[in-house]
């Protein structure tokens, strides 16, 4: 379930950069990626926290701030009180993803290889989504952020990727991995 402002942002973008971050590393990397990608390729690129898929209004407000932080995307009002425009949505999370875009995910691992708090609801909804009858045309890239000092290295990004693959989404390029333990984030 996403709010109407986020839905509009997604519609207006050619590339949508989502992130799930506990302490800000993925968020920073996603912001940098968004800016560099947009200036290098001239594609309208939006940045959105995955917490837009959670029911927590405070989280959704953060996400709208992210979306509005992109100058090219600032042509809509910052409607922080926007309500969710889909009631009783069935669990088909992919219905939020028009297939004429590229989706980029920056996913940090936390706990024992778990999703960060802001990405958790999205991940749960992905898991509950049933395999579509026709192959999805959704294209995406994924960058995992973690530390090889932890037993379940990159597990959250690996799990997220598994779900996207299960639903027939097409991975573009290779699965990127940034390792905090080796200073590569
Ligand atoms: C309490 C804690 C648990 C973590 N658990 C994992 C883990 O299970 N797997 C992993 O690859 N990295 C793990 N990390 C490393 C983080 O993913 C890494 O520091 C990352 O840069 C944090 O990104 P964020 O700031 O976007 O949340 C953990 C870090 C902390 C502080």
UniProtKB/TrEMBL annotation:
Signal peptide limits: none
Region (Disordered): 59-81
Comp. bias intervals (Low complexity): 59-72
Coiled coil: none
A GO molecular-function descriptor: flavin adenine dinucleotide binding
PROSITE patterns to which the protein is assigned, alphabetical: FLAVODOXIN_LIKE (PS50902)
Limits of the Flavodoxin-like domain: 15-185
InterPro entries: Flavdoxin-like (IPR001094), Flavodoxin/NO_synth (IPR008254), Flavoprotein-like_sf (IPR029039)
UniProt keywords, alphabetically: Flavoprotein
Protein name (Swiss-Prot/TrEMBL): Unnamed protein product
């Amino acid at each position: 379930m996403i709010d109407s402002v986020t839905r509009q942002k997604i519609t207006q973008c050619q590339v949508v950069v989502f992130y799930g971050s506990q302490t800000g590393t993925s968020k920073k990397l996603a912001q940098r990626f968004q800016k560099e990608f947009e200036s290098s390729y001239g594609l309208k690129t939006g940045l959105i926290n995955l917490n837009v898929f959670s029911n927590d209004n405070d989280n959704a407000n953060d996400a709208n701030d992210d979306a509005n932080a992109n100058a090219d995307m600032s042509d809509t009002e910052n409607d922080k009180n926007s309500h969710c425009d889909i009631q009783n949505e069935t669990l088909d999370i992919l219905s939020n993803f028009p297939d004429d875009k590229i989706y980029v995910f920056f996913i940090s691992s936390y706990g024992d290889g778990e999703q960060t708090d802001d990405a958790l609801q999205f991940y749960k909804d992905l898991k509950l989504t049933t395999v579509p009858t026709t192959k999805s045309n959704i294209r995406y890239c994924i960058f995992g952020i973690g530390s090889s000092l932890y037993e379940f290295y990159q597990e959250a990004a690996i799990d997220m990727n598994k779900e996207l693959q299960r639903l027939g989404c097409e991975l573009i390029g290779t699965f990127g991995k940034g390792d905090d333990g080796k200073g590569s984030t």
